[in-house]
Write a structure and sequence with these properties.
Elements: H1 3-16, H2 18-53, E1 58-62, H3 65-69, H4 82-94, E2 98-104, H5 106-117, E3 134-139, H6 145-152, E4 158-163, H7 165-207, H8 209-217, H9 222-257, H10 262-265, H11 274-303
Antiparallel strand pairs: 1-3, 1-4, 2-3
Length: 306
């Protein structure tokens, strides 16, 4: 097969269907950009989970005098005693899933509260005796929180057992929801792109039906006749994949590093690096190249009678 013939036919097809080719490039670019963005979002959520789940603790809050005086509380037997605290700490250290145990007194809790919320109105009326004592438990596997909750919730002197992961779970659920929405829009754009590719190939084949008939009469193979149409679709898809890669790079640059600069405004978040973005670009390019080519090949079997 002469490369010059194939390239010339690709140029002819692109010029004849310039508007539809442009639509294919745009739709492929948007769908692949959403696809790459969804992959990066999923990796970002996974990175944040690994980072934060490794830092969060299980907090066991102990009964205070104020809790004991409340009829609706779980501390009907009174504030926690020194003996109960010693027993709780010993039981925690005996659990093989516990890595470390840190005891925080009421004074230490009050000091930390003043440092974090000292400028709020409620902080001015809070006293140290209103702050609960607690055990901060670091687990070897954060997923085994329920083991600790089952063992210590409801015990004498324990007001509540809280897993700090719950504070972050809403954020992760939101990000996962956005990821699913992006995949849904990507699927819709992908269907639109495939329909445009099929229609473009069909129009291109129809406009060149005379040349196709002549090639068939002189004995050209089906593959020889079909290849220019397939390459035309693949070239448009390749351009769309390249545009999608640019969108991903620009999005990472302006969202995280500059522009909105989330990395500067949200320093506690461990954002994915450039290596994660570059790792997804070959996949985006490959899909952008192969998807239109396969769609064109399937369409040609129906619309190109060779």
């Amino acid at each position: 097969m002469r490369a010059q013939f194939v390239l010339s036919e690709i140029g002819v097809g692109l010029r004849r269907n310039l508007t539809m080719t442009f639509a294919v490039i745009v739709s492929v670019a948007l769908s692949l950009a959403l696809f790459g963005g969804a992959l990066l979002m999923r990796e970002q959520v996974s990175t944040m989970k690994d980072y934060w789940y490794d830092k969060v603790n299980v907090s066991i809050y102990l009964c205070t005098k104020a809790d004991a005086a409340s009829a609706a509380g779980k501390c009907g037997k009174g504030a926690v005693t020194a003996q109960q605290k010693e027993q709780l700490q010993a039981d925690l250290k005996d659990m093989n899933i516990v890595e470390t145990v840190f005891y925080e007194s009421a004074d230490e809790a009050f000091k930390r509260y003043k440092e974090e919320y000292g400028d709020t109105a409620i902080a001015s009326v809070i006293t140290p005796d209103q702050m609960p004592e607690s055990f901060r438990v670091k687990l070897k596997d954060p997923e085994k929180y329920k083991v600790v909750a089952t063992a210590f919730a409801g015990r004498d002197g324990v007001e509540s057992v809280q897993d700090q992961r719950g504070i972050l779970q809403n954020l992760f659920d939101l990000m996962n929801g956005m990821n699913i929405a992006a995949l849904g829009v990507m699927g819709l754009m992908l269907v639109i792109a495939l329909m445009l590719i099929v229609n473009t190939v069909r129009v291109s084949a129809f406009s060149r039906r005379r040349e196709t008939g002549i090639m068939r009469l002189v004995g050209a193979s089906s593959f020889y006749i079909q290849m220019p149409f397939i390459m035309e679709a693949a070239f448009a898809g390749l351009l769309g994949g390249a545009v999608a890669c640019v969108l991903l790079l620009v999005g990472r640059y302006f969202l995280i590093d500059h522009g909105i600069a989330l990395a500067e405004k949200m320093q506690l978040v461990n954002f994915i690096g450039w290596d994660a973005v570059f790792a997804k670009l070959p996949l985006v390019i490959a899909i952008g190249l192969l998807m239109p080519a396969v769609a064109a090949f399937i369409a040609l079997r129906k619309y190109l009678k060779v």
